[in-house]
Write a structure and sequence with these properties.
Largest sheet of chain B: 6 strands, mixed
Oligomer: heterodimer
Structural class of chain A: alpha+beta
Helix content of chain A: 25-40%
Number of strands of chain B: 21
Radius of gyration of chain B: 23 Å
CATH topology of chain B: FAD/NAD(P)-binding domain
Number of domains of chain B: 1
Structural class of chain B: alpha+beta
CATH superfamily of chain B: FAD/NAD(P)-binding domain
Strand order of the largest sheet of chain A: 6-5-15-16-17-14-18
Strand content of chain A: 15-25%
Helix content of chain B: 25-40%
Radius of gyration of chain A: 24 Å
CATH architecture of chain B: 3-Layer(bba) Sandwich
Distance between the termini of chain B: 52 Å
Strand content of chain B: 15-25%
Number of strands of chain A: 22
Shape of chain A: globular
Number of helices of chain A: 16
Largest interface: A-B, 37 and 43 residues
Strand order of the largest sheet of chain B: 8-2-1-11-20-19
Chain lengths: 515, 449
């Protein structure tokens, strides 16, 4: 009988620091003892990281909890704010906005999903927005925050939250965590890659200094270029630019002028969209656009003209091709982060996809035999996740009435993937939301974007009618009332942050100012 | 678009009355008339055996109907079970051990075995231990208790269960049409009406085909039956009952204890007995007709898939309930979901046969087996009816020991871990030995078996 010990991999080398590299280092070092599995991370300070400000999704909390990270400490050190969702402005129509919240709308009544009842009342002439039945949407509107209640019967339990933080500081935080658990960091630029002549497996990376760093398994966290996965192993790329035509982004931080909002904002622009991510000490901004329809200079000008406070740096530009690596795991190289694919940050999925890759790598960790099975299974699962996020992003662009610029006209009229067309048809017909076992965005997320962008079901579940109009009206009024009084009782987001996790950066600055 | 005013269920037996009972409850107060027209079949429309296992989820269905276990015991000879005895192992309804350091428990069994210990995964399963010791109690709600990680299903006498559902449906206003089904009028791709040996033809807004294997309505709208490529059994016949307190399955022969006796049926290839063909319809819902029970598909008996598939189909139909517009979009989603559900259940039925080298399997099952053999990973697809622990029980029970356990275990202290595992096993053994014997347990209050 073969045994684990016979064929164990002993050395993992992570190529590239930044958010992806340090998430991998922290995640792996929390699970494996360094004397059993050594982890080295090679990065060069000369190569900048992409992270500007980063918005996340609630899954990051599970990852942090698994690592045993103390939330307050982490939030202080990364200057983090809470995030209850994303506000989308001008996507369906100019002047119209909605929030995609981390939480449900209402609750099922009589075994029928709440939105069916809402559609039914709407057909009867009820003009209330579905937002009235979402606690996190109302909290966002009023910039309030409180921790969700653990009492599942309370309306205060009907939301979840994520963070908005400085990605550079998050990487630094995880670096300290990983180094304390035995991860060895090596500074240096990689100038060469040694491959096995026969198998093509990567055996080592060679640094500018001449140092040779050998490993059994390599994690490519080198960013867009994919130093190992693409430049060395030529794993191929599946481009999705025809569905998601943005290919450039300008990013710039600016001073915060108003109180922190507990949500990220994505505002549709003529040839793309602008993000706004409020941190405790500043605001991250960026304009994601299609270079075929807007010049880089014009995009830069638009971004700089739409900042709420003075810019804190020169804007930086990133180029990308939306899509996914054909093999995210090839031979003994596993790509994570931008090396594995790129999906624009419209739904803040970058960090989630990195953490998911790490979780799946742990689940499928190879031994020295490197079974094709492990690789194939990892690739199958990760590809599905990318595709399902992709469909969700395309929905934002496609479900629009806008025809005021060539960009929006293209998005509105383009042919979408069958998988998405199918989902939209089902929702339009009867408010049915397709669910899968894998795939991150669940029912409330799809619902928020469908309704927010004007995809309203033609009909509702007929079983809704088991509840009488009067009983339903009473229930809905009661629920909306509970939402509204719960929000009223909450402190402001700014006040909550101040007492819970004041930013280490902000308070340092305040001290300096006082002297 | 208008709501459905009438539904006609054609057929008899468990499939027909399950749907009639469920719909009469779900459509309460909707002004929809539900009628059942018997097709005169003598064999059950959903179950091949004369007794059948149910999985825990079915208890929720009974709960919605308002059928208490008390009523069911009296009427359907119900008997509870926590595990299916497979001869050399059990398939328990519940977890094995407990997750440690995020690692699924069965990896620790592999670890112990690689370390030269004798470790039988059954001894880390409360429901398996209960079955082998002939014990029974209900699970408790406290997640910290060792008695929270299992559940139980019911063994049902098929004929009596059908009668129970029929009584329920009729008491709730379901009409029984006079006469028997003779002919189905399919005009175009939909059912126009059905004829009977007495009285005028019947027409409805929507039809349910519960006519068993002949699938007379699905056939009328020309939905093909796809023979399963992997499962070979095609006969079932009564077998000699064997005295057992827990359900047993051995070489195609199921021995199911119901109250007051054991019902045994054996599935075989060729020879005597009731003939059947395993497989499923290419579609389950076309236009204005949906198939339920054997009209939808046939699989040899194993561990409760008959009622599970009926229940899943029913729940999905309610979730996608049509109006008289008969939107093809709803039917398409129903078919997508039910096709996957059916195929994953088929994989589970097939699993022991593949592991014994008696059958081949489809690629999805091959991947499941090879991932488990190689590293103890249970690949779970969309629309699985059997959770991870069912697959682990069969895989390990049939002798598949993963080549590798999860590497995270190597970062745990081995001596302490061994002690911890031994302690876990002792706690489980003690918990089970303190339980009352199955035969002495009133299945519900005041009804001793």
């Amino acid at each position: 009988m073969s045994k684990n010990s016979d064929e164990k991999i002993k050395r993992i080398v992570i190529v590239g620091g930044g958010t992806a590299g340090w998430i991998a280092a922290a995640g792996l070092s929390s699970l494996y003892k360094s004397d059993d599995l050594s982890i080295r991370l090679v990065e060069s300070e000369a190569i900048g990281t992409v992270g500007v400000g980063e918005a996340t999704v609630p899954h990051i909390r599970h990852f942090n909890v698994k690592l045993g990270i103390d939330e307050r400490d982490f939030m202080q050190k990364t200057s983090a704010t809470f995030k209850l969702g994303i506000e989308f402005c001008d996507w369906n129509r100019k002047g119209q906005s909605y929030v995609h919240p981390f939480g449900a709308y209402g609750e099922p009544v009589g075994g029928v999903g709440f939105h069916h009842h809402w559609v039914r009342m709407r057909k009867r002439g009820d003009t209330r927005s579905i937002d009235d039945f979402s606690l996190p949407v109302k909290m966002s509107h009023m910039a309030r925050f409180m921790m969700p209640s653990s009492d599942m019967r309370a309306v205060e339990s009907t939301f979840s939250y994520a963070y908005q933080f400085d990605a550079g500081l998050y990487a630094a935080y995880l670096r300290a965590y990983a180094e304390a658990r035995g991860v060895v960091r090596t500074e240096g630029r990689i100038t060469g890659v040694n491959q096995n002549a026969e198998t093509g497996f990567v055996e080592a990376v060679v640094l500018e200094s001449g140092e040779v760093v050998e490993g059994d398994l390599f994690i490519d966290a080198s960013g867009f270029r994919g130093l190992l996965i693409e430049q060395t192993l030529k794993s191929g790329y599946e481009a999705w630019g025809h569905w998601l035509p943005c290919d450039r982004a300008w990013a710039v931080p600016c001073e915060a002028t108003a109180a922190n909002t507990p949500y990220t904002r994505a505002t549709a622009r003529d040839a793309g969209w602008q993000w706004r991510i409020p941190l405790q000490h500043r605001v991250g901004n960026g304009y994601v656009f299609s270079s075929g329809l807007l010049s880089e200079d014009a995009a830069r000008t638009t971004l700089m003209a739409n900042l709420e406070g003075p810019a804190q740096a020169e804007p930086k530009m990133l180029s990308f091709t939306t899509g996914v690596r054909k093999q995210q795991w090839n031979k003994n190289v596993v790509a994570i982060g931008l090396a594995s694919g790129f999906l624009e940050p419209l739904e803040s999925t970058s960090i989630h996809l990195i953490q998911l890759a790490v979780t799946n790598l742990v689940e499928m960790l190879p031994d020295m035999r490197f079974c094709d099975d492990d690789r194939d299974e990892f690739n199958r699962v990760m590809h599905l996740e990318y595709e399902r996020v992709r469909d969700f992003l395309i929905l934002h662009y496609h479900a629009t009435e806008r025809d005021d610029t060539p960009f929006w006209d293209y998005c509105r009229t383009m042919t979408i993937p069958d998988s998405l067309a199918y989902k939209m048809a089902l929702f339009r017909e009867r408010g049915v939301i397709v669910n899968y076992k894998d795939g991150f965005f669940l029912e409330p997320s799809w619902l928020a974007v469908y309704i927010g962008q004007g995809v309203i079901p033609r009909d509702y579940d007929p079983l809704s009618e088991r509840i009488s109009d009067q009983a339903l009206a009473r229930y809905m009024a009661d629920y909306a009332g509970k939402v509204s009084s719960a929000v009223q009782a909450m402190p402001s987001h700014a006040a909550f942050l101040e007492q819970y996790c004041p930013s280490a950066i902000v308070s340092r600055r305040a001290t300096v100012g006082a002297v | 678009m208008a709501r459905l005013k009438s539904i006609l269920i054609c057929g008899s037996g468990v499939a027909a009355w399950f749907m009639a009972a469920g719909l009469s409850r779900a459509l309460e107060g909707q002004g929809c008339r539900i009628t059942v027209l018997d097709d005169g079949a003598t064999e059950d429309s959903a179950c091949l055996g004369r007794a059948v296992l149910s999985l825990p989820a079915l208890r929720a269905f009974h709960g919605v109907l308002g059928l208490s276990e008390d009523q069911m015991i009296k009427a359907a000879r119900v008997w509870p079970y926590t595990a299916l005895n497979m001869g050399t192992y059990h398939i328990g309804i519940g977890d094995h051990g407990a997750r440690l350091n995020t690692v699924a428990f069965h990896h620790f069994v592999t670890w112990l075995r690689q370390g030269g210990h004798k470790a039988d995964i059954d001894t880390f399963s409360i429901p398996a231990l209960m079955a082998s010791a002939g014990k029974f109690t209900r699970p408790v709600n406290d997640p910290n208790s060792v008695l929270s990680g299992f559940s139980y299903g019911l063994v049902l006498d098929v004929g009596r269960y059908s009668d129970l559902l029929r009584t329920y449906a009729v008491s709730r206003g379901v009409d029984v049409a006079e006469g028997r089904l003779t002919k189905v009028d399919g005009s175009g791709a939909q059912i126009a009406s059905v004829h009977r040996d007495q009285g005028a033809p019947l027409a409805a807004d929507f039809y349910i085909d519960a006519t068993g294997e002949p699938a007379r309505l699905m056939s009328a709208v020309e939905v093909p039956f796809e023979v399963d490529l992997y499962l070979n059994a095609n006969r079932i016949l009564p077998a000699l009952p064997h005295d057992t307190g827990v359900p047993m399955m051995s070489a195609g022969c199921q021995m199911l204890p119901v109250m007051g006796g054991v019902i045994s049926d054996e599935a075989a290839t060729n020879g005597d007995g009731r003939a059947f063909v395993q497989g499923r319809r290419a579609q389950f819902w076309v236009s204005n007709v949906v198939a339920a029970g054997h009209a939808a598909g046939v699989l040899q008996p194993f561990m409760g898939h008959e009622l599970q598939l009926l229940h899943t189909g029913f729940t999905r139909l309610i979730g996608l309930f049509p109006d008289d517009g008969m939107s093809p979009v709803l039917a398409r989603e129903y078919n997508r979901l039910m096709t996957q559900t059916f195929d994953r259940v088929r994989d589970f039925v097939l699993l022991p046969q593949v592991l014994r080298g008696q059958a081949e399997g489809p690629p999805e099952l091959a991947r499941k087996i090879s991932q488990f053999k190689s590293r103890g990973r249970v690949v779970m697809y969309d629309e699985e009816s059997y959770s991870e622990s069912f697959w682990v029980s069969v895989l390990m029970g049939e002798g598949v020991l993963p080549e590798r356990y999860d590497r995270i275990i190597d970062s745990m202290e081995p001596e302490r871990l061994t002690q911890q595992l031994i302690k876990m096993r002792d706690i489980m053994a003690r918990a089970v030995s303190a339980m009352p014997p199955l035969k002495a347990v009133p299945v519900t209050s005041g009804v001793p078996a």
